[in-house]
């Protein structure tokens, strides 16, 4: 029996459900999801295993009009990922008409020359599907199209089956027990950032970064994690901390619940908040916070 393996990039504008789809296909959470735009900032790989095939799904930041160096690196990350795979999935939100960013993504996909599928997501939000996909199909010439709901896990089996059939023959890229290539520190930091995004005001999301400073097993029952939440202005620091520290406490409680499920033990979470002005536009700080220039990797 021959073995097949390859990569599929999940691309699209912000908030179309790329990370939700990745988590649904893997049957576990490896990418954070929130209602806030541009939640995903890094390239995240999830690995789907079958007896005769391995499909590596590459989640990417949403393509948008970048207003700072961080945004520029996010868009570069998406473009680079789309040009280095066997298949591209252009994810769109069919509950809404196409936007300018959807056309940007279609143009980006077309330039690669790589087979591109249109994945119409969020069909659970649409009462009548007729005509919903047509405006998106007009964006470019797609190799195939699918209508799914990542949130409700509808239409996913056929999507994966047909993707597996297209993979080139070759050895697996990752061992059979590996689900993602992300580090533990990255995952822990992302969980903390997710809870902060869900709980804080609209002015916070794009200005927030999280760094895990220490992660130590204190015993078989307790994991200690110390992390710093960076914001750009003192007013944002005050919002993240909250009156009498209540907001930071809520962030810690939400993150601790997810992390204790992840580790299967108690987690002692020690959170700090610091101000670093304009970190999103400073090369050195972007690299320190984990947002390297993809062209230099």
Report the CATH topology name of the largest domain: Rossmann fold
Spans of at least 5 consecutive residues whose pLDDT stays below 50 are none
Q: What is the ordering of alpha helices and beta strands?
A: EHEEHEHEHEHHEEHHEH
Tally of distinct domains: 2
Distance between the termini: 36 Å
What share of residues are in beta strands? 15-25%
The main pleated sheet reads as: 6 strands, mixed
CATH class of the largest domain: Alpha Beta
- Derived structural class: alpha/beta
Continuous helix count: 9
Helix content: 25-40%
Dominant shape: globular
Query: Largest sheet, order of strands side by side?
Result: 2-3-1-4-5-6
CATH superfamily of the largest domain: P-loop containing nucleotide triphosphate hydrolases
Mean pLDDT: 92
Number of E-state strands: 9
Task: Tell me the Rg in angstroms.
Answer: 20 Å
């Amino acid at each position: 029996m021959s073995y097949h393996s390859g990569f599929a990039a999940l691309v699209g504008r912000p908030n179309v459900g790329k990370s939700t789809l990745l988590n649904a296909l893997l049957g576990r959470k490896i990418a954070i999801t929130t209602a806030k735009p541009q939640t995903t900032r890094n390239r995240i790989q999830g690995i789907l295993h079958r007896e005769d095939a391995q499909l590596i799904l590459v989640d990417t930041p949403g393509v948008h009009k970048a207003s700072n160096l961080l945004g520029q690196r996010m868009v570069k990350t998406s473009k680079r990922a789309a040009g280095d795979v066997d298949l591209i999935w252009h994810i769109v939100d069919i509950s809404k008409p196409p936007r300018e960013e959807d056309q940007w993504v279609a143009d980006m996909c077309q330039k690669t020359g790589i087979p591109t599928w249109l994945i119409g997501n969020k069909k659970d939000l649409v009462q009548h599907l007729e005509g919903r996909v047509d405006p998106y199909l007009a964006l470019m010439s797609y190799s195939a199209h699918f209508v799914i709901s990542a949130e409700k896990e509808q239409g996913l089996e056929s999507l994966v089956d047909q993707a597996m059939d297209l993979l080139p023959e070759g050895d697996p890229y990752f061992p059979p027990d590996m689900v993602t290539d992300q580090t533990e520190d990255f995952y822990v930091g992302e969980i903390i950032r997710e809870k902060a995004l869900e709980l804080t005001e609209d002015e916070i999301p794009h200005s927030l970064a999280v760094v895990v400073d220490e992660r130590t097993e204190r015993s078989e029952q307790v994991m200690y994690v110390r992390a710093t939440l960076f914001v750009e202005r003192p007013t944002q620091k005050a919002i993240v901390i909250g009156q009498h520290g209540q907001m930071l406490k809520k962030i810690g409680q939400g993150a601790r619940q997810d992390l204790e499920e992840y580790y299967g033990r108690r987690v002692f979470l020690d959170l700090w908040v610091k101000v670093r002005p304009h970190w999103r536009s400073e090369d050195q700080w972007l690299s320190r916070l984990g947002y390297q220039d993809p062209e230099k990797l």
